[in-house]
Design a protein that fits this description.
Helix content: 25-40%
Number of helices: 4
CATH superfamily: Response regulator
CATH architecture: 3-Layer(aba) Sandwich
Strand content: 15-25%
Structural class: alpha/beta
Largest sheet: 5 strands, parallel
Number of domains: 1
Strand order of the largest sheet: 2-1-3-6-7
CATH class: Alpha Beta
């Protein structure tokens, strides 16, 4: 069996973060975090060179997750924005980053993890 994907989970709403962490773990992922702020997420990235994917809530208590996306993309990790916003709310520099609409379902997470394997 392949090694579990290490997923950095960045979400500022506690219950959503806990639900997503549970679902990701049930799907076989190794969850890093969850982190509720840009500062905490950047610290986790610095501490963990093995993160494969970042699942990032776009809006973290009014602060955008773009610095987190930059840090992950710079090291070759995959990034997915999880957001209730449509694509027009995302900075055009990140138009290439996949977006998973909230609420994030188990099937959406499973599809995201499968796409990561390809």
């Amino acid at each position: 069996m392949a090694e579990a994907q290490r997923i950095l989970l960045v979400e500022d709403e506690y219950m959503i973060a806990q639900d997503m962490a549970y679902e990701l773990t049930a799907l076989g992922a190794d969850v890093v975090g969850p982190a509720a702020s840009v500062e905490r997420a950047l610290r986790l990235i610095e501490e963990d060179p093995a993160i494969d994917t970042g699942l990032l809530d776009l809006n973290l208590n009014g602060e955008r997750a773009y610095p987190i996306a930059e840090a992950l993309l710079a090291r070759g990790a995959r990034v997915v924005f999880t957001t209730g916003y449509d694509e027009t709310a995302i900075d055009p520099r990140y138009a290439h980053v996949p977006r998973c609409s909230k609420p994030v379902t188990r099937s959406a997470l499973k599809q995201m993890l499968s796409a990561d394997q390809a």
